[in-house]
Amino acid sequence: MQRAGVTGFVGENLAWGVGETASPAVIVQRWLASPAHRVNLLHPRFRRVGLAVPVGPFRGETGATVVTANFSG
User: Fold this and answer.
1) In the chain, which stretches have pLDDT less than 70?
2) Residue 50, CA atoms < 13 Å, CB-side half-sphere
């Protein structure tokens, strides 16, 4: 985030899954069900978001999807 020039108020959500548990709908649903992740998604000060969604080996799974959402305001 620093290399992108982001400073000040920031947040981050992380998630990972395989198959159906890696779908965008499931990941956002889980984030909304988690109080800390929900705050990041809905915080009015966050005006920018950066996403990364690599797929590959993770925690013993060969086709895992890892999602990171970085927020700044």
Assistant:
1) none
2) 12
